[in-house]
Design goal:
Blueprint: H1 3-20, H2 44-51, E1 54-58, H3 63-66, H4 87-96, E2 101-107, H5 136-147, E3 150-155, H6 168-185, E4 191-193, H7 209-219, E5 224-227, E6 233-235, E7 250-251, H8 263-268, E8 275-276, E9 279-284, H9 300-309, E10 316-320, H10 331-348, E11 357-360, E12 395-413, E13 422-430, E14 436-442, E15 449-468, E16 476-480, E17 497-499, E18 502-504
Parallel strand pairs: 1-2, 1-10, 2-3, 3-4, 4-5, 5-6, 6-9, 9-10
Antiparallel strand pairs: 7-8, 11-12, 12-15, 12-16, 13-14, 13-15, 14-18, 17-18
Helix pairs in contact: 4-5, 6-7, 9-10
Amino acid sequence: MNKKKSTSQLTLFIFLSLSLTSSFSSSQTPRKPPPLPILPLPSSPQLQWQLGHMAMFLHFGPNTFTDSEWGTGHVDPSVFNPAKLNAAQWVRVAKDSGFSRVILTAKHHDGFCLWPTEYTNYSVSSSPWRSGRGDVVGELAAAARDAGIGLGLYLSPWDRHEPCYGKTLEYNEFYMGQMTELLTRYGEIKEVWLDGAKGEGEKDMEYFFDSWFSLIHQHQPGAVIFSDAGPDTRWVGDEAGVAGSTCWSLFNRSDAKIGDTDYQYSSGGDPFGHDWVPPECDVSIRPGWFWHSLEVPKSARTLLDLYYKSIGRNCLLLLNVPPNSSGLISAEDIQVLQEFNDLRKSIFSYNLAKTALINASSTRGGSNHSWFTPGNVVQEGIDSYWAPEGNQSKWVLSLNLKKLVSFNVLQVQEPIQMGQRVIEFHLEVLNEEGKLNKVVNGTTIGYQRLLQFPTVKSQYLRFVIDKSRADPLISYLGLYIDRYSILSNLSRTTSHASRNGSQILHYHIESNHSQIAAI
């Protein structure tokens, strides 16, 4: 590259950077308060839930021993006898693999209870396991507490064993009695999981959901409640672990009904929603939800792809890992989880933008205001963030990586405690001719957005927010290299190809900026 060309490139980037930088600040200026949050906002339990990233579902019960998915409710309790059951192993596998909580099917559709309930004999008390004195929920609660991870419970509304099912008042009383046992015997419960699943031709049944929700929040005020319609977290609308490419935590609960899901609405949320109900992506590591001896787990790379399409789209990933008939998580599942964990660490352990020089189109309170400086976007966590001045016509972060860097993953986070704001954004890099090329664009961000694109190599880039519900706030921006996903092996892609809900806009760029001086 000749000297004249290098100088013109440098001049262009200096001009771009200086034109975007706030021109006035004073250390004597009174501190600028944070901008107003934009409604709706998450509750404290919802924030803690979102910060957990991943939860492990544990489907376990008589189905584990009968090679079934939906039990009939008439299987003899004697089939339940997991001779080597070790809840501490379940919890250890979850924690070692990066999961923040475990959720157990305390009662599935067959009505069999994994704790010694006083409302039915169809439980562990009637099984040979632990001579009828066992308590799976109790053992898991103790193990989770000792390991410092959260506990969640699933109590199926549909009960194929209970005789009063179908009698509205009697069954709701029965269900709330069982729920009260679970909420008052086992310490802190982080999540209560409900759904509207019911087979065709089954008895009609009206569930008193509002009463259930009130009971749960009364006994466990720190728990989030999952269902098709919230109130705290919602089903994403499929059991494939994939969220919509546009995914709002905003939602109208009045437009959703438990057991009658509008899949498109659940997947994408509602930019005009009045309620904060973030989505949860549930998927099983195996083809079935319960353990079956002839099934094998998904590969670690498949789980990585699901990670991008769930956590990378503003969701929590709920991965089902069913214990086997011995009462242990199978060795092959553990191996895949370890490989999955290793892949994530390899990709995301270091932010390639960590030491970048960062300028902003404007900064709230002035360019040197420490609360809202653009440098906050490479500090982990959502408590600090970049905020622009109000009433701006453009919102841009310009990064100088100080050297040529190859990357193919963009991570962006919003401080969701201030509301979800960004509607559209894109990423540009400076090419070898001194021109800015769009690499990828996306829509919503929320707690976290991960976008993949063919590998680019550059020193200078711009993150541009094109549309927002209010002044945008960015808490984190990361660049990474993923050498494992299929897309990372592509050298270029056709214009406007789609990947992970983004649009990949230009050919792969291998820029030679070695003669461009650092700014």
